[in-house]
Amino acid sequence: MKKLKFGLATQILIGLILGVVVGAIFFGNPGVETYLKPIGDFFLRLIKMIVIPIVVSSLILGVAGAGDGKKVGKLGFRTILYFEIITTFAIILGLVLANFVQPGAGVDFGHTEKQDISQYVETEKEQSGKSIADTFLHIVPTNFFQSLAEGDLLAIIFFTVLFALGVSAIGERGKPVLAFFEGVSHAMFHVVNVVMKAAPFGVFALIGVTVSKFGLESLISLGKLVGLVYFALALFLIVVFGIIGKMIGVNIFRFLAYMKDEMLLAFSTSSSETVLPRVMDKMERIGCPKGIVSFVIPIGYTFNLDGSVLYQAIAALFLAQVYGIDLTIVQQLTLILVLMVTSKGMAAVPGTSFVVLLATLGTIGVPAEGLAFIAGVDRIMDMARTVVNLTGNALAAVVMSKWEGQYDPEKGHRVMTGQDVPEPTQLSS
């Protein structure tokens, strides 16, 4: 009798469904969080453990392979420019939809449970004291090893790029260094295969805790907001990314099908970090150069949060509508500019979306206290915006490869449709 074998995506989906069922059955029971949360946290810690070594080793190999500081500088400028354009589109789409649908009209917070957001308030106070100059200075690490310990991705990338350029500049003497990091890269991708075996259990635990804590009923009072956020994110995912895909010769539906495992895992865990190694590997498989993939995608995790800024735009207008505040065109333009700046400056801060909203609402005269009422459904919306963030960064690697003249659409099409399956040099699916 042939043994039934489930793929990773199927296992994760089963874990997701079981987590929802268990959470719904034991809604309000604190024991669920007591027993399941450690399992979910254990999986997330496993992922965070391997992300930095993979980013550092891949980036060193990619940048040193390019061997030209001018090329890296040009790629960096184009990448940031692209990120700014796309995130601005996301913010504008969020504002247009929120103005049209009016999700906050008629909402009464009197029947909505208020959540504690004091931790985000303290973080926002710390961050608001920093100037734009402080934000840019923070990119340059005073102690690289401290940045590694803190997981400060921007500072790590800055040092790693400079180090890689130095290795490239010394020629033959740098080859042992490259050989070492090539070994590290292959070893870490093997570790990813081992860690991903725990993914279904991590997903089961994380979803179970979320549903048991907030319940499915929490969607009812704020259902219009949640529905609009999901619709807006789906629209951005299919239409905006679809147009970009058309321009670079990528069918967005094939691309999404190719990324389905990673999207499901990111949705279930509300974490882009869980799929960073797999996304980098998959982009290389469809023909994106290692140097571009290892540079663009990690930076995108800080600068290209399309789903997050779209949600923040909708949430800001939602709260303004709840409090009966009619924002003028000038105030909404101010909101666009503020979100563009704060979403970058606070990208490495825990609870980024809430912290950014706290920093933003004050500039347009909306009481920040309203965030305490939507905190209960934030995790549900976070799951969807994580998928958009992930897809946007993966697609950005293809865009930059095309922009640099190093992407072959025909090869990408063959791999995404299963006609051409390259040997997995780093990560087996």
From TrEMBL:
UniProt xrefs under Pfam families: SDF
Subcellular location(s) of the protein: Cell membrane
Protein name: Glutamate:protein symporter
Single biological process term from Gene Ontology: dicarboxylic acid transport
Spans traversing the lipid bilayer: 47-67, 79-101, 153-171, 191-216, 228-253, 286-303, 309-342, 354-377
Predominant localisation class: membrane
Record keywords, A-Z: Cell membrane, Membrane, Symport, Transmembrane, Transmembrane helix, Transport
Membrane-related topology note: Multi-pass membrane protein
